[in-house]
Amino acid sequence: MRIRLEKRARLIESGREPYPVKPERTHSLAQIRAAFPGLEPDEATGTRVSVVGRVVFIRNTGKLAFATLQEGDGTRLQVMLSLAVVGEEQLADWKALVDLGDHVQVQGEVVSSRRGELSVMAESWAMASKALRPLPTLHAGVNEETRVRQRYVDLMVREEARSMVRTRAAITRSLRETLHANDYIEVETPIVQLVHGGATARPFETHLNAFDQKMTLRIALELYLKRAVVGGIDRVYEIGRIFRNEGVDSTHSPEFTMLESYEAYTDQFGMAERMKEMILNCADVLGMRTIETPQGTIDLDGEWKWLGVYPGLSEVLGQDITPETGAAVLARIADERGVSVDPAWDAEKLVLELFSELVEPTLIQPTFVYDYPPSAQPLARPHRSNPRLIEAWDLIIGGMERGTAFSELIDPVIQRERLTEQSRRAAAGDEEAMQLDEDFLRALEYGAPPMGGIGLGIDRLVMLFTNTGIRESILFPLLKPEAG
């Protein structure tokens, strides 16, 4: 860095700008590659251009210097500086002042080298941005910690990192297009909230100075979107950042992106069709309806099965588990199977934990897991034919939950009972319980239409199609501060 700082100072002393406002650029590197395919070796085109790029390779010989420039999408192009063309002073300055990682602007003729490499033969050059830190060596790679902590370096040196950004953008764009084609309206709802709800999760707390009021960051998009449906926006969605003050692992991040959509006059089965449509459209945009994973091949063209929570758990355990099975029996099964549980958990919570640990990882093909116990989703409608269950499903693909949906609870009396029970749990020390949201209940009391709702984790959908962990799927993930 000291040597590079000295070079920066020499540029300034000689009256040259190491960081000019806008270097002249007539063509992108990609445009030149597209315009001049298949030149013969040592061919001159007569076309003069001005290009800008980051120097990712440099070789300085006596009377001829070579460099490779790279632009944002990874396109590369060679530039050549010949003593006979650029002159002694400019060639000497190039050798003395340009390092790997610098952005440079080169003006000259589009030619091909003796080996047939498409190039720009420089007639002049200028610094576009002097890099003060050296690039990591490309062949040695960058370790994972550096890749996620310094994503900008990762993007410079790895095409896979740039591809991840494009893939995520394509998935998000496809989801929006599918919903727009089905007449959904995209809205934005508050991130800083007085009452947290819409999920069972521990919130981040903050303080609003204007009102001298304790606030939280949202843990879900649900409750405001349902207010919009009450108001008459029958098909509504939001893609937004969610914040949950909980653990960090390969599938969980405290800050992540959710899509939530709500549609009047449909139910969990209608939302299952909508979810399938969204995911298959994403697969088509990416050109991959089959996905190779360490657990096996996922076939999105195959059957999307439905599996009840209790029958699924019964099959894996080899014994009948029903909503009537007691907590003591379930706790004993957990102990026998090595599943860690809390002695305070009731039967419903134990069933959910056992299913999550023993059944969910085995579900590789798309599977709608449904017929949950009520405590799983306090905002879902009671089952139409079994009062011990609710109308909700989780979509499991590749052994991991990718999304969820409900036939939404619209009865304000039952909803008040559910949220009151949640507030009791919060008072008893449950940091993940929802708060009682009086304004949300007031909205339901005006009459909400029957509706279905979807929650889809964007990060987990990206993980599905790219076979990566959550830290790779998020461009700038939340990380523990660097030591020292």
UniProtKB/TrEMBL annotation:
Coiled coil: none annotated. Its cofactor is Mg(2+). Binds 3 Mg(2+) ions per subunit. The keyword tRNA processing does not apply. Residues 166-481 form the Aminoacyl-transfer RNA synthetases class-II family profile domain. One of its GO terms (biological process) is lysyl-tRNA aminoacylation. InterPro entries: Aa-tRNA-synt_II, aa-tRNA-synth_II, aa-tRNA-synth_II/BPL/LPL, Lys-tRNA-ligase_II, Lys-tRNA-ligase_II_N, Lys-tRNA-synth_II_C, NA-bd_OB-fold, NA-bd_OB_tRNA. Mg(2+) 1 binds at D394, E401. It catalyses: tRNA(Lys) + L-lysine + ATP = L-lysyl-tRNA(Lys) + AMP + diphosphate. Pfam families: tRNA-synt_2, tRNA_anti-codon. One of its GO terms (molecular function) is lysine-tRNA ligase activity. Its EC number is 6.1.1.6. HAMAP family: Lys_tRNA_synth_class2. Homodimer. This is Lysine--tRNA ligase. The lineage of its organism: Bacteria, Bacillati, Actinomycetota, Actinomycetes, Micrococcales.
